[in-house]
């Protein structure tokens, strides 16, 4: 059984995103792990998890690019067809500006994600996202 003596699961943490993945603290007290079941170096579990979070952040950024673009595309189509005061809402200068701004932000995220992924892949840089954002 997974929850044996010395293993305690704290209350599940409510979070904003990734709802399909439960998050909670797990406490291990006087738990022995056979050497054959050890993954990585002893005492490095927290470090390994922090490294995994970097991978997760890069994946999340990459996976969200297309859905964000689709939102902008759908908004363009809607505002093109929606009429107010006898003309298309898309003809409003501010609406045009805001949609262009949103698309620019998506392209900036794409460039940041690609560059951070490249650094992570080529150099093994665990803080690639932060280095790219700070121009390092």
Automatic annotation (TrEMBL):
Keywords of the record: FAD, Flavoprotein
All copies of domain Acyl-CoA dehydrogenase/oxidase C-terminal, residue ranges:
43-122
Q: Which SUPFAM superfamilies match?
A: Acyl-CoA dehydrogenase C-terminal domain-like, Acyl-CoA dehydrogenase NM domain-like
Q: What cofactor does its activity depend on?
A: FAD
Decide whether keyword Transmembrane helix is in the record. Answer: no
List each coiled-coil range.
none
Q: Name one GO molecular function term.
A: acyl-CoA dehydrogenase activity
Report the protein name in the record: Putative acyl-CoA dehydrogenase 6
Q: Which organism is it from?
A: Portunus trituberculatus
Lineage per the UniProt record: Eukaryota, Metazoa, Ecdysozoa, Arthropoda, Crustacea
